[in-house]
Design goal:
By secondary structure, this protein is of the alpha+beta class. It contains five helices and two strands. Strands 1-2 form a two-stranded antiparallel ribbon. A hairpin with a 5-residue loop joins strand 1 and strand 2. Helix 2 packs across helix 5. It is elongated, with a radius of gyration of 16 Å.
């Protein structure tokens, strides 16, 4: 399994965490992920997760006109999204702890 595959399983949590800081659009979210060395294959990789977040009603979507006159779609986490983020962070921490315990070798930490 490569890093991209591992990231896909955590992308929902990462995107919601970014949106908790500020509203954002797809390309900007991808660039924010890259700041943490979390690289996707391309900007088109982010849109399926944004669509899912919208369908689950965890984000609100708005359109704004840029200085160049083009419409840009912004995503903002809402109250339902914040509750969901809290839950998946808790699940992730528990899973991480369980996996770390499983990987412990000779009663020492990895």
């Amino acid at each position: 399994m490569n890093k991209t595959s591992l990231l896909k399983g955590h992308l929902e949590m990462c995107v919601l965490s970014i949106l908790k800081k500020q509203k954002s659009y797809g390309y900007e979210i991808m660039k924010e992920l890259e700041k943490y060395n979390l690289k996707l294959k391309g900007v088109s990789s982010i849109y399926p997760i944004l669509t899912k977040l919208k369908e689950q009603q965890w984000v609100d979507v708005s359109s704004e006109i840029t200085d160049s006159g083009k419409a840009r779609i912004y995503y903002t986490i809402n109250q339902h999204g914040e509750k969901h983020l809290e839950k998946i962070i808790g699940d992730w921490i528990e899973l991480q702890s369980n996996i770390k315990a499983l990987l412990t070798i000779n009663e020492g930490e990895l």
